[in-house]
Amino acid sequence: MEGSVLKRLYVREQTWSTNPQRFKNETPSLRWLGSVEKLQRRNQDYLLLETIKRVGVQNYSLLSRLTGLNAETIRYKVNRHLTKLGLATTINVNYGELGLSVGYLTVKPNTSSGKSWLDKMSYLVFVGKNIGSNRFFCLTAVPFRLKKKYMDLLEQIKAEGLIEEYEHKELYWMRYPPFRPEFYDFDARSWKMDWNRFDMTMSEIGQSFISVNRDSNVDYVDLKILSALLKDPTMPLAKAAKEISVNPRTVRYHHSEHVMKNNFILSNNIRWVKPFQDGQPGGVIQAVIISKKLDETGMSKVRKFCNSLPFTWLEAGTEDKTYMAVVDIPLSEFQKCIQEIEIHLQGVGESYEVTMLDTSKSKPLSIPDEMFEEKRGWRLYTAWETGRPEPV
Fold it and tell me: What are the tens digits of pLDDT across the range 195-209?
């Protein structure tokens, strides 16, 4: 569509140069040229974002070849221009290939215990506190061979009186919906939804993985690289090597031969982060959507709807047909978005709920690399004392 607009503007410019009287009542051609340049920049932004989702941001030369933009332009757009657009790059970790089983955990702590239940927990890769409630929503990523011991640990923490109740459900599959530029206003640096046309765009896209019950060949250096790139996907490997105190040549080898070839990074993505850039986390409402006991038709309907929401950045499901999605809803779209959720999810499955999280207290998605020992692999700590815990 933008290509056709560019063509029309070009034709108008050529016509003006040969027959200016035809447009005597219109703004001078500099306005048209400005529109052309703006559309050209917009096309560059679209192309770059789509290419980043395909290959990431580590290799500027590759991005230059694929987009036709020179490497310095790529460098500027990745390090500065995306920030101006209210966006940031991210990597999507394949927890399954790391030998980790993902699940969601809801917890009601015992506030009278005087101790924090979080101090005794491990393998939490996302933590959010429910707004207006003494409850937490978490995502766990636990080595499959330690799953039973992990549940024993939860029971132990409950027996110690640190939590009153909890629910843990293992997720069978997990998916990262990609950034949807068709719903984004690049000038306003915010989402611009046309809800009247939303149903026409509903389709399932995004890279996914399923839980695996096997060990991984991931090693200590691989996890440190992943952790560094998860915090900053634009970080050069040489800088990552310095941060983790490993030889740069070793880091480059592990990145190409282990991280990339073993599919530890499932995909790359773009996230809307403007409210956080502006120091206004209240500009976004983070919420968790859970729909339980769905049949095949219901699961398909819920998946298609949530996957199409441009605010959804993670979704998953269990073997017993429970569906879960985590969304970052802009405050300006919150009321309408909740209405759409009610329209599409009401009457589907046994029940559904939308839980709002306090964005100022959320812990971003991470990997539990602190639980990996260089010589012994993934460990689970069961004795919590002053000093180093006792591993199993």
Answer: 988 876 777 899 998
Residue span(s) of the chain under CATH 3.30.70.3460 come to 86-218+262-392
Query: Rounded to two decimals, what is the model's pTM?
Result: 0.85
| Mean pLDDT across 303-318 | 95
Residue 74 CA from chain centroid, whole number: 22
pLDDT at 389 (0 to 100)? 45
pLDDT tens across 147-185, in order?
Answer: 999 999 999 999 999 999 999 999 999 999 999 998 999
What fold, for 219-261?
Answer: Arc Repressor Mutant, subunit A (1.10.10)
Choices 3.30.70.3460, 3.40.50.300, 3.10.180.10, 3.90.1800.10: CATH for 86-218+262-392: 3.30.70.3460
Q: What is the mean pLDDT of the chain?
A: 87
Q: Model confidence over 34-56: pLDDT tens digits?
A: 555 666 777 888 899 999 999 99
Return the closest-CA partner of residue 157 out of 391, 390, 388, 381.
381
